[in-house]
Amino acid sequence: GCDVIGIYFSAHWCPPCRGFTPVLAGTHKTIVGAGKKFQVVFVSSDRDEAGFAEYFGEMPWLALPFSNRDAKTELAQKFSVTGIPKLVLIKSDGEVISDDGRGVIMNDKEGAKFPWA
């Protein structure tokens, strides 16, 4: 299993998202490269499958299939997503570590404090 799972609510049309995604990708790469267990799942707020596919193409992690809108809505409600980008960091058992994962990553781009719990 993973020590930390990041649920990443984001979209290609959102400039702050496009700014944060490369930062998250760099941190993800550093942490995974150090042999630690960090997985990210992209939950798309893109307007269509094409936008999703293009944006997901830039990401080194997993994604909820774009067609699964019901699960997207459910996750967004569960984690009280009111704006994007939003990164929720959870433990493998579902316990929330932080619902401001973006802030956590911006303050620890090297992942030195991973698993942030």
What keyword list fits this structure?
4 helices, 21% strand
Integer average pLDDT:
97
**Shape summary:** globular
Largest sheet: 5 strands, mixed
Name the helix and strand elements from N-terminus to C-terminus, one letter apiece.
EHEHEHEEH
Describe the structure.
With 117 residues, the protein is α/β, with parallel strands linked by helices. The protein has helices spanning 15-33, 49-56, 69-78, 101-106, and strands spanning 4-10, 38-44, 62-63, 86-90, 96-98. A 5-stranded mixed sheet has the order 3-2-1-4-5, sandwiched between helices. Strand 1 (4-10), helix 1 (15-33) and strand 2 (38-44) form a beta-alpha-beta unit.
Produce a short descriptive summary:
With 117 residues, the protein is α/β, with parallel strands linked by helices. It is 37% helix and 21% strand.
Which secondary structure elements does this structure contain, and how are they paired or packed?
Elements: E1 4-10, H1 15-33, E2 38-44, H2 49-56, E3 62-63, H3 69-78, E4 86-90, E5 96-98, H4 101-106
